[in-house]
Amino acid sequence: MIQLRGKKILLAISASIAAYKMPELVRQLIKAGAEVKIVMTPAAADFVSPLALSTVSKNEVLHTVHEANSWNNHVALGRWADVMLIAPCSANTLAKLANGLCDNLLCAVYLSATCPVLVAPAMDEDMWEHPTTKQNVARLVGFGNKIIPVGHGELASGLVGAGRLAELDEILAHLEAHFSTVPKLLSQCSALVTAGPTYEQIDPVRFIGNHSTGKMGIALAEVLAAQGATVTLVLGPTSERVTHPGVEVIHVASAEQMLLACSNVFPKMDIAIFAAAVADYRPENVAHEKIKKAGDTLELKLTKNPDILKTLAAQKSPNQVVVGFALETQNEEENARKKLKEKAADMIVLNSLRSPGAGFGHDTNMVSIFQNDGTVQELPLLSKTETAKAIVQTILTYRNARKMFKD
Ligand code: PMT
Description:
This protein is 33% helix and 25% strand. By secondary structure, the protein is of the alpha/beta class. The protein has two domains: 2-179, 3-Layer(aba) Sandwich (Rossmann fold), CATH 3.40.50.1950; 190-286 and 298-406, Rossmann fold (3-Layer(aba) Sandwich), CATH 3.40.50. Strands 15-14-11-16-19-20-22-23 form an eight-stranded mixed β-sheet, with helices on both faces. It has a six-stranded parallel β-sheet with strand order 3-2-1-6-7-8, sandwiched between helices. The protein has a two-stranded antiparallel ribbon with strand order 4-5. Helix 3 crosses helix 5. Ligand PMT binds next to helix 9, helix 11 and strand 19.
């Protein structure tokens, strides 16, 4: 989190149950070398202790415009900060900010702030989905504020849905991305990545799937986004999370849905990486009701799924780079070369289930990259992020070489 070193962050906390997470966020910001000042609405103190916040931030926490005979200078605070982060931002505070209300210190600071403002909303799903909230969010975006997307999951009401405060690592990633000044190698580039398994429905309760977690594809999407690419990640069912704000995630379940989502965006992509473990076959007929236990055996007739990589590689323009994966258990190299040719990819990234620490589920992978000019690059066992960095570097070199050759 090098980008946060020395940065002045004004954290504004409103009354939401998620406020209890803020001391940990402040601790991480301080650890990253940031300076943190905090304002909160009076009601936020019911959810998180100002004493805990002032202890971790090493600064006094302010919640009223004036205390006794002194006045808290909201203008100075708004001018001091490099960025104002409003987290959690309740529905009430969101509405006040969107409409210029100024009945507490947090709102006064917001109206005075000359720095960029990041807003991390948190509320129950019904409130989040309400047209008024949507309008208020749109107004804040219109004012140039950045909205950190809400998460999906268990809410304070006990219901499950959208409206959770983004996870702390996502908020930190948004702050980092905000301050990032590193020259980006892919800032003019758009990239498509597929990741995760596909689920092929058998009946309303069963499916054919595989052990892919999506970790490899997510790492690729995040590395591409970190290099400035605009990334679309078409993601099969997984509990893994994507933290980089530059990645747009399209959730799908089946191979057919994955193909449709990819086909819609593929023509405008510069790079496409197919890391998903797509089921080759799906049940020919999906039962509308749960299949009941009957005889000792059950026959399922399967039909071939579309090959997403092959279908799209056949449509690729000369400027696009298409990369596939090959997951093998035997004759690895031979099969990888065969897939490279048959699927007309520019590269195939081979990983074998015979290599310890490689393939499904691990945080590590060991791959070899086969290029269509016959070059093979063998990588050691690395974290999936380091593997993704090496793959992206190879793609960059390949693109540059192709460009030079054309020029
Ligand atoms: O998700 P993780 O748990 O991190 O695991 C990572 C991984 C092992 C899934 C990943 O590294 C990997 O190897 N992905 C490809 C798995 C696979 O299905 O390989 P394959 O050899 O069956 O397919 C070859 C290529 O064709 C792949 O790029 C695949 O995405 C693509 N394909 C396959 C079938 C199909 N119907 N459509 C496709 O696009």
